[in-house]
Amino acid sequence: MANYGYAGKIIKVDLSVHATTQLDTSDYADRFIGGRGVCAKLYWDETTHYTKAYDPDNCIICTTGPIAGFTRFAGCRWQMCGKSPAMEPESFSYANFGGSWGTWLKYAGFDGIAVKGKSEKPSWILINNDSISINDATHLWGKTTVDTETYFLKTLGKEARVMCIGPAGEHLVSFAVVMASDNATGSCGFGAVFGAKNLKAVVIVIDKKKRPIASDPAALKNFAEIVFKLRTENYENYGHVLIDKKKVRACYGCISGCDRQEFPDESGRGYKHFCQASAVYIEHAIKYNGLEEGLSINRVANQLSDQYGLDTAVLMPMFGWLSACYNAGIITEEETGLPLSKIGSLEFVIILFEQITYRKGFGNTLADGTIKAANNVGRGSDRFIGAVIGTRANETRDYDPRYMPVHALIYPFEPRRAIHLLHSTSLVTGRWQNYLDGYKDAFISPEKFYEIAEEYWGSLEAGDFGTMQGKALAAKMIQEYGYMKESLVLCDLSWPIYPVKYKTADSGFCTMEAKILSAITGKYFDKKEYLRTGERIFNLQRAIMIRQGTGGRTGDTIMDFYHTDPLETMFKNPECIAPGKDKAIISKKGNIFDRNDFRLLINEYYSIRGWDIETGIQISDKLKELDMADIGFELGRLGLLK
Ligand code: SF4
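^ thats the input. predicted complex w/ iron/sulfur cluster below
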C-alpha cells in the first residue's frame, strides 16, 4: 500500500535512555490498517507475554487511522493501547479518543507514537513539527490535567495539542485516565501507565499542517456529501443528561456533531458533558439534594474527575457499591474516613476523590478498583458487585447479556466494556424502543429493526432476543465490522449509518466504509475484503489475549452473576421490553443466562470462528488464511496454537 492517507512514519520513544527512532507505517498498515489494528500489532511486536502494566517494558501506543485528517467523516478519532492495570489479572486493553490530538499528530507527520521505558524523573515529550524531544516535567508533577493543559497552551501557544495525566495517574490509581485536548479522555488505567513511566504529557506543536493525500480526492468529496445526507437525515439524538449553558463541542472532522457538549465552570473553562460521564454522580446527587442542586453537584463531580484524571465509568458504580455496603452495615464512616451517610453531597465527592487520587486511607483500597476493594473488605461486600459492575475492568453494568444475548459473545473476548461493539445492537434497540414509545424523530420501526438484524447481524433470528439462534454469527459480524471501525478510526456514534429515510446504492452494511477506505488508500476493498481485514484484526487481539494467558475456554466467560441473578431492569426500560420472534414484543425481566446455553453458544461461536472447539485457541491454517502466519508462528513457539 502506498502512503495515500498516511503520514508514513511512527515515532518510537525509549524513556529509559531518552532515545527516539522512527518506524515505517506501511510495515503495519498494509495488513492492519491503522487505529486499533496498528496499535495491536505494535503491542504484539514491542511486548512479551510476561510484560506487566507498570514495567518499563510496557509499551503505550497511540495511533490514528487512514481517515484522520480528512474531515466530514467522523473519522478523526484515535486509539491508545498497552498493558492495563485496570483489571485482575492485568490485560492488554485499549481506549478510543475523540477531540483533535490524533489528527494533529498526523498533521505533524506521524501516524502513531509508541512509548517504552521509564524516565528517571518526570518528563514530557514534545513533538514539534518533525522533531521530537524529551523534557523535564518536574515542575508539572502534581498539577491537575486542566492546569497542565493550561500551562502548555500559555507557553507553547493556543494551537498546541496536549495529552496529559493528572495526580491520579501519578499515584498509580488503576483507573486513572489520560486526558487530551478538547476534553478527550481515554480510560482503562492508561493514566497510571503514564505515571509509572514518569510521563506527564505528550504535546504537539505544528507550524504548517502536513495534510494527508487521498488516492481519489474527487470520489472522497462525493462520499462526504452522501455521508452528510445519510447522517443528518437518519440521525436521532439518543439524549443524555440535559443541562443549561451547554454548547456543542464536536470532535475535529465530525460529520454534523452529536450530543457531545461542554459546560463552563466559573472561570469559563469548558468541561465535557457527554454520555455516561455526564451522569457520573447524578442518581445520588439528586436523591440527596433535589433536582436542581443535584444536577449542579453532579457537574462538579464530573469536573473534579477530569481534573484529577479519574475514570467516571469506574466511579459511577463505585458510588453504588459504597452506598450498598454502608446501608448493609458492612463498612462504616469511622473505618473508611468517608462521610458515607452523606453520599450524594458535594462534601462526600470531594473527600472521596481526594482519598482515591492520593491513595489516602481507605482511598488506597478503592484506588485499585471496586472488585479488588470488595475482595479486600470481604464480609460479603462482593454480593453488591453484580448490581452495579458489568466488566472485569470495574465499569458500569449495562448492555446486559441477559437482555441482549449476543452480548454474551462480546464480553468474553474483550478486556473491557467494548462500546464500539455493544452499541451495534443497543443503539438500534434503544431507537426501536423510542419508536414504540412514540418519540419525535424516532425512525427505527419494528420492520426496520428486523431489516437491520438481517443485513447487519446476519439473520432475522439475530433480532429475536428470546432465542440463542443466530447470535454466534451476529457476534462475528458485529466484531469484524467493529474492529474495522476502530481501525479506520470511525466514530462509533456515527457509524454504522443505517439507511432509513434516505438511501443510496452506497449505503448499507460496510458499503460506504469500504468505498471511503478505497478512495483514501488507493487499495480496493470490497465488502468481503473489508470484513476479512476486520477478522484479521480481531484475531490479532485474540492472539494477544491467548499469549498473555487470559483467552481460551477457561478465560472466555461472562461475570458469574449473569448466570445466577435475575435481570431486574434496563436503562430507560424498567420492564426490559425487547424484540422477539415475528415482531412480537417480549419482556426479559427476571431472565438469567443459563450456563448450558452459554456453553453451547461458545461452541457454536468457536466453530464459526474456525478456532479449536475444545480449547478456543486459534488454528494454524486459519491464521495462514488470514495472512497471519507470523503471528501463528509465535503462538506455536509458545505452545498456544493448534
Ligand atoms: S459523532 Fe460525536 S463523538 Fe463522534 S466524532 Fe462526532 S462529535 Fe465526536
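Residues 401 and 407 are 5 Å apart (CA to CA).
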